Amino acid sequence: MARVAGVNIPTQKRVEIALTYIHGIGRRTAKEICARLGIPASHRVQQLSDNEVLRIREMLDSEYRVEGDLRRDVAMNIKRLMDLGCYRGLRHRRGLPVRGQRTHTNARTRKGPAKPIAGKKKVTK
Q1: Nearest by Cα to 87 from 76, 74, 97
Q2: Going by C-beta distance under 8 Å and a sequence separation of 6 or more, which residues neighbour residue 50?
Q3: What CA–CA distance (Å, rounded) separates 83 from 42?
């Protein structure tokens, strides 16, 4: 099992797909990395030599922000918005959708499970 950027990438998958298991690397970036290093698209991770794995590791370290560094940057950006007290920061602080979605009926992903309201009767038709 190859370990790149602190993540064990699956050995049975193609290199371009396996790289997407790293936080911050998507399909496009994975294809770009394979093309720049000259790794064929049909190669699987288990077929890579130690030298190729090392080259992938070095490229990710030098040119891309992935895993812990990326997560830290995102968290710091959200914290900065919250400290500023801007609208987006307030929405983050309250646990509500940030990008203008409706909250009257939906938004259960951000708000969590529905909480019953005391005293509210169900309307019968």
Answers
A1: 97
A2: none
A3: 48
Encoding tokens for residue 12? Answer: 């049975």
Q: Is 33 exposed, middle or buried (0-12, 13-18, 19+ CB in 10 A)?
A: buried
> How is 21-82 classified by DSSP, letter by letter?
GSTT--HHHHHHHHHHHT--TT-BGGG--HHHHHHHHHHHHHH---HHHHHHHHHHHHHHHH
Burial 69-87 (b: 16+ CB within 10 A, else e): ebeeeeeeeeeebeeeeee
Q: Distance between CA atoms of 123 and 108, rounded to whole angstroms?
A: 22
- 16-72 pLDDT, tens digit each: 999 999 999 999 999 999 999 998 888 898 888 888 889 888 898 888 898 888 999
Per-residue pLDDT for 122 more than 90? no
Task: Count other C-beta atoms under 10 Å from residue 25's C-beta.
Answer: 24
